[in-house]
Amino acid sequence: MIDFQAIEDQYALPLFPKRGITLVKGKNARLWDDKGNEYIDCMGGQGVVNIGHCNDKVAEAIARQAQQLITCTGSFYSDQRALLIKKLVDITPANLNKVFLCNSGAESVEGAIKFARLSTGKTEFICAMRSFHGRTMGALSATFNPKYREPFEPLIPGFHFVPYNNIEKVEEKINDKTAAVMLEMVQGEGGVHLGDADFFKQISRLCEEKNILLIIDEVQTGFCRTGKLFAIEHFNLQPDILCLAKAMAGGLPIGAVLCSDKIDVSFGSHGTTFGGNPLVAAAANAAIDFMIEENLAGQAAEKGNYFAEKFTKIELEKVREFRQIGLMIGIELKEKVQPYITALQEKGVLVIPAGATVLRLLPPLTINKEDLDKVIEKIAEVLS
Fold first, then answer.
1. Each residue of 310-349: pLDDT tens digit?
2. How far is CA 359 from CA 112, 300, 353, 355, 383, in A?
3. For tag attachment on the chain, is the N or C end more exposed, with fewer CB atoms within 10 Å?
């Protein structure tokens, strides 16, 4: 029998702390390892699997497209790419009318940074403390956590960090070199901290007054996760640039940068080899159609409220705070979270951290309430 773990341990760069199991199968909100053990997945591929593992509609679209055309450079038109671009424009705010397709959330943030600098002629950005925008050099420059930043310094200069939800501190950092303010609607990696409606209203006004671009990173919150198709809908926000990725293609690598008329770029100023390829575009078209047809935004809102109501009735001394919007859930503990993540895995529930003390849940939005009940039961067991 092949020892898959030994192969990865020997030959893969040790960039991921391994969890000790080899996953070989998934369906909806369930995963199975190579020993036949079954798990309820509340990691969702780090927020990717909103439509569930191995969604039938997406699997069919991939199989069909793989027999027709898999790759197509951006120098040629593509039917699936065209359909996806139009679909994205149709479901996002009306001011966003141009799209760049890429392969990941970090790539979408990199594109946004370049487009903002190119369009404004300015070089500085205001970001939030606790922010996470990715690990490539530009995205990392916009990311706050010193643990991620310091090994790679010097990073790109001109990125300033202010407290989240604090409009006064944003105003203090603005100068004549400020190209954009870049923010997450919910700080996922930063601990599942929710944005304030009044803060985003004032940010929008301030950016308009100062002729500064507003970039919103919805890599994790996009595609129904928060109970709306996009989290900006909670506040009727219209950013100048919207970064999307993760859940867009049902598990395949994809990213997108949506832009308003304020973004002015030229031939050759940016590019991609695989972005918008027909295979992934077909998967994304099927995934987005499924999300809308099945009202996954409404499901996320209902199931998230269901989880919150049941969980918050349980008295757990180890819990400092419960934070939730849709099926994006953060349980802040009074101690380190890692032992409880391990204990939950042993009980058949997979979760992830958001910092040192926050238990984060990003289950498929198609998860049923019976599985949510089991998750609540197991979390209560390990925290007791």
1. 999 999 999 999 999 999 999 999 999 999 999 999 999 9
2. 30, 18, 5, 8, 11
3. N
Residue 138 has pLDDT above 90, yes or no: yes
**Residues paired with residue 323 on neighbouring β-strands, in sequence order:** 330
Dump pLDDT digits (tens) for 256-299.
999 999 999 999 999 999 999 999 999 999 999 999 999 999 99
Beta bridge partners of 272: none
- Look at residue 301 and tell me whether its pLDDT is greater than 90: yes
Alpha-carbon torsion angle 161, 352, 49, 71, nearest 10: 60
| Residue 1's pLDDT band (cuts 50, 70, 90) | confident
Q: What is the largest CA-CA distance in the chain?
A: 65
Radius of gyration of the chain from its Cα atoms, rounded to whole angstroms: 21
Q: Are strands 30-33 and 38-41 parallel, antiparallel or unpaired?
A: antiparallel
Do residues 284 and 86 touch, judged by C-beta distance below 8 A?
Answer: no
> How much is the pTM?
0.97
- Which residues, including other chains, have CB under 8 Å from residue 302's CB and lie 6 or more apart? none
Q: What is the 3-state secondary structure (H, E, C) of the chain?
A: CCCHHHHHHHHCCCCCCCCCCCEEEEEECEEEECCCCEEEECCHHHHCCCCCECCHHHHHHHHHHHCCCCCCCCCCCCHHHHHHHHHHHHHCCCCCCEEEEECCHHHHHHHHHHHHHHHHCCCEEEEECCCCCCCCHHHHHCCCCHHHHHHHCCCCCCEEEECCCCHHHHHHHCCCCEEEEEEECEECCCCCEECCHHHHHHHHHHHHHHCCEEEEECCCCCCCCCCCCCHHHHCCCCCCEEEECHHHHCCCCCEEEEECCCCCCCCCCCCCCCCCCHHHHHHHHHHHHHHHHCCHHHHHHHHHHHHHHHHCCCCCCCEEEEEEECCEEEEEECCCCHHHHHHHHHCCEECEECCCCEEEECCCCCCCHHHHHHHHHHHHHHHC
